[in-house]
Amino acid sequence: MIRARGLRKRYGRVKAVDGLDLSVPGGAIYGFIGQNGAGKTTTIRILATLLPPDGGEAQVAGADVAREPNEVRRLMGYMPDFFGVYDDLTVGEYLDFYASLQGVDARATAGLRERLLELVDLADKRDGYVEGLSRGMQQRLCLARALIHDPQVLLLDEPASGLDPVARVEMRELLKELSRMGKTILISSHILSELADLCTHVGMVAGGRLVREGPVGELLAPSARPGFVLRVLSGAAPDPVRAVDRAARALGELPFVSDVRIEDESSGGVGPSEVHFRCAGAGDAASALAAVVRAGVPVVRFAEAEGSLEQTFIRLTREEVRTP
C-alpha cells in the first residue's frame, strides 16, 4: 500500500533521509519508529506530498508522490505532529470546513460529520468551540479531519504527543478500530513501548535509513541466542561475595553463555536482583541454571526473557553503527 525506494532528503549538509526503503502492506498498522531526528517526520512529509524528495521514489496506494500528488492526497489522510485548529469554529463547523476543502459532496457532509464525531467520541461536543476542547479531544478532532474524505491510507506523525495516559489509551483504541475498518495506517513515534501492542508491522529507522522492518512477531522473535533471566536473593547467605555476583561469575565461566548482565534491585546488598544472559537454547539454559545452583546461589525465578521493541531497536541500531 505504501512503497518507497532510495528516498533521500537533505537540509543543507544534514542528511535527513539517506536512501530509505519502506514497504507497508495493505491493512497494516505500521509503526515507524526511531529516535528524534532519525528522519521519520521528513519521510512522512514526503509521503504526504508536502516535501519533494531529493532522490528516490515513493507511492501511496499506487500513486506516485512526485508525479501524482493530487491523487495521493485523495487517497491519503495526514495528521502532522504539530497542527493548528481554528479556535473560533465549533467542532461541527471545523469538520464542515475541511469537508468543503476536500471536495466532499455537500449533501453527504452532514451524515459523514456525524459518523466521524461518533467514531472519535466527540458527538456531544458538536456545538462546542474547538478552543474549549482538551488536548486529547483536539487530537481526536484532527484525526477526524484526516478521515473526512474517507482515505485508504492514514499518515500519523506522533499522534499521541502531549497526551495524558488516559488519552493515549483512547487514541490507541481508536486506531485499532480504524484498522478493523480496513484503513492502512503508518504511525510514527519515538515511544516504542506504546506501539508493541498496537502495530502489526514495524519499521525501525536510524540516521535516515531503515534498519529493519517486518511483522512485529518476527522482529520480537527470539534471536539465534535467546535471552534468559535468573532472579536471585542477594544477602541470603553469609558470604562476602553477593549471590548475584556469584551467579554472574558462574555463568561467565560457561563457554555457551554470553552477554551476562546484572540488574541489581537490592537495597544495601540485600534483596532480589536479576542476572540476564544469552545461550544457544533451552538445553544449554538448563545447564546454566544447574551451574548457578551448584555455586550455592539461591535462585527464586528462572525464565526466558521477553523481547521488546526497545531492546530490538537498540540492538539493531548498534549493529548498524558497527557496519561500515
List its salient traits:
324 residues, alpha/beta, Rossmann fold, Alpha-Beta Plaits, 2 domains, 6-stranded mixed β-sheet, 4-stranded antiparallel β-sheet, 34% helix
Write the layout of secondary structure elements.
Elements: E1 2-11, E2 14-24, E3 29-33, H1 40-47, E4 55-60, E5 63-64, H2 69-75, E6 76-79, H3 91-101, H4 106-119, H5 135-146, E7 153-157, H6 165-180, E8 184-189, E9 201-206, E10 209-215, H7 216-219, E11 227-234, H8 243-252, E12 257-264, E13 271-279, H9 282-294, E14 299-304, H10 309-322
Parallel strand pairs: 3-8, 3-9, 6-7, 7-8
Antiparallel strand pairs: 1-2, 1-4, 4-5, 9-10, 11-13, 11-14, 12-13
Structure report:
The chain is of the alpha/beta class. It has two domains: 2-219, Rossmann fold; 227-306, Alpha-Beta Plaits. It is built from ten helices and 14 strands. The chain has helices at residues 40-47, 69-75, 91-101, 106-119, 135-146, 165-180, 216-219, 243-252, 282-294, 309-322; strands at residues 2-11, 14-24, 29-33, 55-60, 63-64, 76-79, 153-157, 184-189, 201-206, 209-215, 227-234, 257-264, 271-279, 299-304. The strands form three sheets. It has a six-stranded mixed sheet, sandwiched between helices. A four-stranded antiparallel sheet has the order 2-1-4-5, covered by helices on one side. It has a four-stranded antiparallel sheet with strand order 12-13-11-14. Strand 7 (153-157), helix 6 and strand 8 form a beta-alpha-beta unit. Helix 8 crosses helix 9 (282-294).
